[in-house]
Amino acid sequence: MHGESRRSAIAAPPPHPRGWSDLARLLPYLLPYRTRWIAMIVAAILSVLATIGIPLMTKAVIDGPVRHQDQRGLWVLGTAALAIGVAEAVLWFIRRWLVARSTMGVEADIRKDLYARLQILPMSFHGRWQSGQLLSRVMNDLATIRRLLSFGLIFLVLNGIQITVVTAILLVMYWPLGVVVLISILPITVTVLHFEREFTRLSRQAQDQSGVVATHVEEAALGVRVVKSFGREDYVFDRFDQQVTDLYDIQVRKVAVSARFWTLLEVIPNLTLIVVLGFGAYAAGHGLVTMGTLVAFITMMLSLVWPIASLGFLLSMTQESMTAANRVAEIFDAPVEITDGPRTETPRGGRLELVDVGFRFGSQDDGNDDANWALRQVNLTIEPGETVALVGATGSGKSVLTALLSRLYDVTEGAIRIDGTDIRDLTLSALRAAVATAFEDPALFSMSVAENLRLGRSDASDDDVAAAIDIAAAGFVYDLPFGLDTRIGEQGMSLSGGQRQRLSLARAIVADPAILVLDDTLSALDVHTEAAVTDALRAALHGVTGVVVAHRASTVLLADRVALLEHGTITHVGTHAELLATVPRYRYLLSADDELDDGCERNEPWQADEAWQRARREEVMEDDEYRLARAPRRDSR
Fold first, then answer.
1. 197-228 pLDDT per residue, tens
2. Which of 449, 605, 432 lies closest to 513, judged by CA?
3. Which of 178, 238, 342, 563 gets the highest tally of CB atoms within 10 A of its CB?
4. Is 470 exposed, middle or buried (0-12, 13-18, 19+ CB in 10 A)?
C-alpha cells in the first residue's frame, strides 16, 4: 500500500512527555542490532572493571611483594597486571568496532523511515515547512543522535558505573577520604541542574537556525538565474550573512554556557584531589593507611577525574541529542491526513464524476464557514474517452481542482468518483496509477532523461517512451550528449522552460493513465511547437479521459466540452461553440488570447449587458415604488 509499506519503528508519544521522551522513543531502532549492542555493553563493562582492577593490583603489588621483597610474587602480580591492561585495550577495540557498525545502521534506518514519512505527508504539511528545516532534520539532527548513541550514551553509562563503583571502593578502603569524594558529587549535581535548561534552549535555537541557513542556501542555488538576472548577488549575500551571523551568535552563547559548565566540572574534581592528597598523606604518616592503599586510593581518584570532567561534554551532547530527537519526532508525529482506502484495484474505465465538491484551505474549525473556500458546489461528469477543458480566470480554482483528482489534497465536502468508486476508497497507488498529471511548473529530477520519463511507470518499454516523446514533441532529447541517458541538472535547470514542460507532458503520457490531467502544460511553448503538440495530443486523448486546464483557444479546441469556473464554482458546461455564443464571460476570457487579439482597446459587451440589466432593474424598482406610493391606503382598525 502506498506510503505504508515501510512503517517507522518509533514508539508512540507518551501521555506525559518529558525532555528525554522523544529520544527514548527512538530506542526501538536498536532492536535489530540488539546482539551487537549486548556484546558491546558486556565488553564495555568488562573494560571498566579492568580499569578499576589495575589500581587494586597496584595496591596488592606495593603491600605484598614490594613490601616483603618477594621477587617471585612480584613477577606473578606484575604479569597479571599486564594481562589486565592488555585485556582492557582489546575490550575497548571490540567495543568501538561493534558500536560503529550498530549506530551507523540505526542512523540509516531512522533516515530511511524519516524520508518515507516525508513522502506520505500531505501537501499541506510541505506547504508549511521550509525545505531547509526538513533537510536539517534528515542530515544534521540524525548525525547528532548517532554521535550520542555511538559515544555519548555509552560513556555516560560507563562513567556513571565507574563513578559509583570507584566511590564505593574508596569508602571501603578508607571511609574518611571516601566521604570527601562523595561530598564532591553534590556541587557537580547542582551545576548540571543549573545549566541544563539554558543549554537545551540554546541548542534548539541553534538547530532551528541551521535549518534557516540551509533553506537560504537551497533557495539561492535554485534561484541563481533570477538573482543574477537582477544583479542582486550582494542583497542575497547580505541576507545570508545576517542569518549566518544569527547562527554564530547563538553558537557563541551556547559555547559560553557550556564553557562555564565544563570549567566547574573540571575544577571540582581537581580541588577534591588536592584535599584527598593532603588527608591521605596525613593518614599514611600516622599509620592509618598503608602506602599501597594510599597509592591505590590516589590512582583511583585520578581515574575519576576524566569521568567526572567529561560529564559536562557528555551531558551537553545528550541535551543536543534530546533537542534533535524532538525535531525528528515532529516529522514522525505530523498527521497523515490522506491515507489509503481499502480497494487496491486500479480503475481503468475512466468515468470521472465530481459531486458537490468543495475544498477549503486551512482549518475547518476556524469559526468562519465562508473563509478560505477555493471550490464550492462543483458538479461535473466526464465520460470515458471524453476530454473536458477547464477555463476560468486566475484564482478561480482550476489548479486546485486538478490537484484534488489525484488526492494531493482531499475534498472538504462532496465526493470525486472514478468508475463509480469514491477515490478515497482507493489506495493511493491504485488511484495514482489511474490518474497522471502534467503540471504547469514541471519538476524534473537530477537523473537521466529516461529515468525522469519512467518515473510514473518504471516498467514502460522503450517503444512507450519513444511514443510519448513524439506526442510531446520532445525529440530534442535525442540531440543531448548521451541521448536518453543524459543526466539533466537539478530541477532540469540545464533545459529551457518549454523543454521541461514537454518532458513533463511525456512523463504523464508514459504513465499510461485512465485519466490524463494537463494543468496548463503548454503555457511555455511557442505557437509552432504548441500546434505540433496539440495535433499529437488530440489523437492521444481519444484513448483516455482528459482534463485540460486551458487559457488559450488552441488548447480549448482539444476538448469535447468546456467547463467554465467562476469563483470556485462551475457555472457553465458545453461545447466551445455553445459557450462562445451564449456566455459573455467565456468570450471575454478567450478574447484575452493573443491569437484573438486585434490590438484594439477592449470594450467587453458582457460588461455593457450587465450594466444595462442593472439599470433596467433599478428603473423597474423605481416604478414599483411610485405605484405603491400612489395606491389608495386602507385604514386598518
1. 788 788 888 888 888 888 888 777 777 767 77
2. 432
3. 563
4. middle
User: In a 10 Å sphere around its CB, with 0-12 CB exposed, 13-18 middle and 19+ buried, how is residue 318 labelled?
Assistant: buried
* Per-residue confidence (pLDDT) for residue 524, from 0 to 100: 64
Q: Can you name the residues that pair with 421 across neighbouring β-strands?
A: 418
* Closest of 139, 133, 142 to residue 209, by C-alpha: 133
Whether 314 and 159 have beta carbons less than 8 Å apart is answered as: yes
d(CA 211, CA 243): 10
Q: Phi and psi for 437 in degrees, rounded to 5?
A: -125, 135
- CA 428 vs CA 3, 345, 416, 547: distances in Å: 8, 11, 14, 19
Order of strands, sheet of 435-438, starting from the edge strand that comes earlier in the sequence: 435-438, 515-519, 545-549, 387-392, 561-566, 569-574
- pTM for the complete prediction? 0.75
Residues 6+ apart with CB under 8 A from 43: 91, 94, 95, 98
H, E, C per residue of 290-352: CHHHHHHHHHHHHHHHHHHHHHHHHHHHHHHHHHHHHHHHHHHHCCCCCCCCCECCCCCCCCE
pLDDT greater than 80 at residue 333: yes
3-state SS record for 531-587 = HHHHHHHHHHHHHCEEEEECCCHHHHCCCCEEEEEECCEEEEEECHHHHHHHCHHHH
Query: Exposed, middle or buried, 558 (CB in 10 Å: 0-12/13-18/19+)?
Result: buried
Q: Is the per-residue pLDDT at 305 higher than 80?
A: no
DSSP for 502-533 reads HHHHHHHHHT--SEEEEESTTTTS-HHHHHHH
Q: How far apart are CA 429 and CA 511, in angstroms?
A: 12
Which residue shows C-alpha cell 486546464? Answer: 549
- Spatial CA neighbour of 484 closest among 447, 510, 446, 450: 450
Model confidence over 515-533: pLDDT tens digits?
999 887 777 677 777 777 7
Q: Which three cell numbers stand for residue 296?
A: 591505590
Strand partners, 180: none
Q: Residue 113: its pLDDT value, please?
A: 92
Q: How confident is the model at residue 53 (pLDDT cuts 50, 70, 90)?
A: confident
Q: How much is the CA Rg of the chain, to the nearest whole Å?
A: 37
In our burial notation (b when 16+ CB lie closer than 10 A, e otherwise), range 116-142 reads: ebbebbbebbeeebbebbbbbbbebbb
Distances 346 to 321, 419, 425, 430, 512 between C-alpha atoms, Å:
44, 10, 11, 4, 12
Distance CA 249, CA 408 (A): 40
517 φ, ψ (degrees, to nearest 5): -110, 125
pLDDT tens figures, 10-22? 888 888 777 788 8
Distance (Å) of CA 377 to CA 271, 525, 570? 78, 34, 8
Q: Does residue 182 carry a pLDDT above 50?
A: yes
pLDDT at position 599, please?
40
CA distance 269 to 356: 74
Q: How far apart are CA 145 and CA 53, in angstroms?
A: 32
Cell 534533535 maps to which residue? 324
Contacts of residue 375, Cβ cutoff 8 Å, sequence gap at least 6:
357, 358, 359, 397, 400, 401, 404, 568, 569
Concatenating the DSSP letter of every residue in 151-202 gives IIHHHHHHHHHHHHHHHHHHHHH-HHHHHHHHHHHHHHHHHHHHHHHHHHHH
Q: Which residue has the cell 582492557?
A: 88
